[in-house]
UniProtKB/TrEMBL annotation:
Molecular chaperone. Has ATPase activity. It comes from Alkalicoccus urumqiensis. Pfam families: HATPase_c_3, HSP90. Residues 491-518 form a coiled coil. This is Chaperone protein HtpG. The keyword Chaperone applies. Belongs to the heat shock protein 90 family. Keywords: ATP-binding, Chaperone, Coiled coil, Cytoplasm, Nucleotide-binding, Stress response.
């Protein structure tokens, strides 16, 4: 047997691969199963174009089996297998992808379910194994071959026996180390849960031997029965037609995936088949997760590539202001083997994110229009996040969000949109007035609000800290500026009234000067006010920052 050398740079690449590209060891199983699925897919595509071949679905499966005694884990498939040359080329050269070549060679349209393309996934086996043996026979040859490697010293290859075409990969699982345990990869339950997590929607059955206790016939006693069961669900719900699915199906998926302990308020099922292709199921939860407004909360969607989970929470798919959205995205255009860091710059991912953002916004707009009470339920839970969205990033999301935010108003103390407020404005009203405070009841009694209401103008009640910051960032809504009733100049008087006031102010000049002297540095000025009706005096702020904002700013850590 000839020992062949990995090229020097390949060896380094392999080390880097094994130790840094993948964040979790368990994904090696996902990689091997994906390869097995690709190998079966290739049989399927071959049969599509070659009349002499038939594809009988029952003949194709992936089998995962662990043997504790020999510390081995095997992944077997009945796929296309590899010839001697293919074996050497695909597994002897790191970053050589037979699958990518297959996709290029065949019509891309046909092959787009094939997952592989980077030619590095296979080597992740060395994260869990100190020796890997590949026994493979091509569907187009009678001769099988055995490939073996410990991952560092190159590999060996020799002819071998194999009854049927396909590939069997045997991993010799590493011994447990002090800080690292590998034995989990030999436990049936662990393996099942890894398969469920990453490979549940692989389109071919993944079989595993499972021990179950069964009652013996005509007897009280039980016996252990070993059965082969399919552990993956195969057809993902997001690939099904919307018309086939009920609200309960969506609700079950929400719970199955642990998106939340509550029920979804709304689901959005998206299928896009254009320049970008993806399927997505998104949920707006009914209630805010307990940690939603804390630093611990992580936004993100599950990201799948052709049914294979590649990231549990991809934050790049959601803007911060929609961080409450849960769900998943599956795209066949994404690359499976790239690291998280590279994924952030993936152009496809950016396009999908943009697309999703628009869909969520549209859905909320529709809900606001057609299901007001549903929308208000949503808004009471997550509205604050939308207002933060208006405020953050220097207000650049204003256009997208301004029609989705609601405020309490002096009109019936109900929630209103800015559009509705504006539509109710009398012609002579120049500003959108608001008052900030702790509660609506207190704001109702605010002396500063009297004159505005007296004029027949409506007032927005800002009871959340973010409210005033958000409108300050917005400056105006559809050309109408916001004005706090506690700002110095409300600009409500007629020319005549103004003149009258000036005269009165002049007449009482000395009184005000005396008052100011008494109050000292606690006030900046004492002035005559025209805005008060039943109260003798009120406090106002000068400039952009109102008293309420000053209070909040004073509480903020330096
Ligand atoms: P990728 O899947 O990205 O192409 P891998 O390192 O996972 O990269 O695999 C390299 C190549 O080895 C594949 O492209 C494929 O040609 C071949 N290969 C791997 N596993 C199998 C298998 N089970 N059956 C047939 N070919 C396989
Ligand atoms: Mg692969």
């Amino acid at each position: 047997m000839v020992q062949k050398e990995f090229k020097a740079e390949s060896r380094r690449l392999l080390e880097m691969m094994v130790n840094s590209i993948y964040s979790q060891k368990e994904i090696f199983l996902r990689e091997l199963i994906s390869n097995a699925s690709d190998a079966i897919d290739k049989m399927y595509y071959k049969a599509l174009t070659d009349d002499s071949m038939t594809f009988n679905a029952d003949d194709f499966y992936i089998r995962v089996q662990a043997d504790k005694a020999s510390r081995t884990l095997t992944v077997e498939d009945t796929g296309i297998g590899m010839t001697e040359e293919e074996l050497e080329k695909n597994l002897g050269t790191i970053a050589e992808s037979g699958s990518l070549a297959f996709k290029k060679e065949h019509d891309a349209e046909d092959g787009h379910d094939i997952i592989g393309q980077f030619g590095v996934g296979f080597y992740s086996a060395f994260m869990a194994a100190d020796k890997v043996t590949v026994l493979t026979r091509s569907a187009f040859s009678d001769q099988a071959y055995k490939w073996e490697s410990n991952g560092t010293d190159g590999y060996t290859m020799e002819p071998a026996e194999k009854e049927k075409p396909g590939t069997t990969i045997t991993l010799h699982i590493k011994e447990d180390q002090e800080e690292e345990s590998y034995s989990d990869f030999l436990e049936e339950q662990q393996l099942r849960s890894i398969i469920k997590k990453y490979s549940d929607f692989i389109r071919y059955p993944i079989l595993m031997l499972t021990e179950t206790e069964q009652q013996k016939e005509d007897s009280e006693e039980t016996e252990t029965v070993v059965e082969e069961v399919t552990v993956n669900s195969m057809v993902p719900i997001w690939k099904k037609d919307k018309s086939e699915l009920t609200d309960d199906d969506y609700k079950n998926f929400y719970h199955e995936k642990h998106y939340g302990f509550d029920n979804p308020l709304k689901h959005i099922h998206i299928r896009v088949d254009g320049t970008i292709r993806y399927n997505s199921i998104l949920y707006i939860p009914e209630t805010t997760p307990f940690d939603f407004y804390s630093k611990e909360y992580e936004k993100g969607l599950e990201l799948y590539s052709s049914g294979v989970l590649i990231m549990e929470k991809s934050p790049d798919l959601l803007p911060d202001y929609f961080s409450f959205v849960k769900g998943m995205v599956d795209s066949e255009d994404l690359s499976l083997n790239i690291s998280r860091e590279m994924l952030q710059h993936d152009r496809q991912l950016k396009m999908i994110a943009k697309n999703i953002k628009t869909k969520i916004r549209k859905e909320l707009e529709t809900m606001l229009k057609n299901d007001r009470s549903g929308y208000e339920t949503f808004f009471k839970e997550f509205g604050r996040q939308l207002k933060f969205g208006v405020y953050n990033d220097f207000g650049q999301h204003k256009e997208e969000l301004q029609d989705l935010i609601l405020f309490y108003s002096s009109k019936d103390k109900e929630l209103t949109t800015l559009k509705e407020y504006k539509e109710r404005m009398p012609e002579e009203q120049q500003y959108i007035y608001y008052a900030s405070g702790d509660s609506i009841d207190r704001l109702e009694k605010l002396p500063q609000a009297e004159l505005v209401k007296d004029k027949g103008f409506e007032l927005l009640y800002f009871t959340e800290e973010v409210d005033e910051f958000a409108v300050k960032m917005m400056r105006d809504y559809d050309g109408t500026e916001f004005k706090s009733v506690s700002s110095g100049d409300l600009d409500l008087e007629t020319e005549e009234e103004k003149k009258e006031q000036e005269e009165t102010a002049e007449a009482y000049k000395e009184l005000f000067a005396g008052m100011k002297e008494q109050l000292g540095s606690r006030v900046k000025d004492v002035r005559l006010s025209s805005r008060l009706k039943s109260h003798p005096v009120c406090l106002t702020a000068e400039g952009e920052v109102t008293i309420e904002m000053e209070k909040i700013l004073a509480q903020m850590p330096e």
